[in-house]
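TL;DR need structure tokens for one chain.
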Amino acid sequence: MEQEALRPAVAWLAASPEPAVRRAVQREFLGQPWSGGSVTGGRIVGSLLAGQQPDGSFGVHPYRKWSGAHWRLVSLVDLGVTEVDAPSMLQAAGTVLDWLHSDKHRSQIRTINGLTRRCASQEGNALYVCSRLGMQEDPRVIQLAHDLTVWQWPDGGWNCDLNASGRRSSFHETLPAAKGLYEFWKASGDPAARTGAERAAGLFLDHRLFKSRSTGRTIDPLWVKLRYPEYWHYGILPALLLLARMGLIDDPGAAEALAVLRGKMLPDGGWPAEGAWWHPPSAAASQTEVTDWGRTGPNQFVTLSAVRILGSASAAKG
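>> reply
TL;DR here they are.
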């Protein structure tokens, strides 16, 4: 997709009511410095930061879906919010690290037949956040990166299934772990982290991101739905975004997923949210969000990812 085709989407995002989105557009797509002031007062970012307690938490367990610090921080970092914008994010990240390194948490790690069975999305998302927040020298963060490389399965992924044969990793667990290792490598230069991220990317590319190697069929129809936030769920949108950041978006294994993404562009140039994993704050349901991201229709957060991906793909073509 040529850069010209992305112009309507960029213009729409540039007019977003959310300052963090406008800043991302100016910096990433327009090459302009941001002069719009604080980004923490927008509806989305403000909701994600609201309610923080003196201990850095948000009054619930860090992993509580979707109001715990773990989830809030991932979305904040996705939007480009940093510790410079909101220093309290560092304290919030500290509560996540304390949980992940607690005796109770680590006692749940199991190794069976030589393979560690671990919900690596938890460590992966935390490593992603902490690396983006400049915490790469914290011993707790270094330990997360080390653990992920040690727990990686032969096929390049991770899996928490105690009964898994060891032949197949979980794409759900692998994507956040790969994101975390890649960001840790960028922040620290650790070669083991880069190797781990590249091995995971190879797993996705070998499957053309969403297809069975043996049958060529789509593994899960939900994987080609465009959703944000993805939390720990796998999908072509976050997978393509990772590949774009890693400079692998022009790999032939990404071509079909890119074609799917291009084909979902709306007539006005944006991209839709095709359902959601969450319920709005007012819903009488479990796992409600602290903000409303938009569950259907044109969506600025899905569009932001799509433009990041396709802009990178255009650049890769020269």
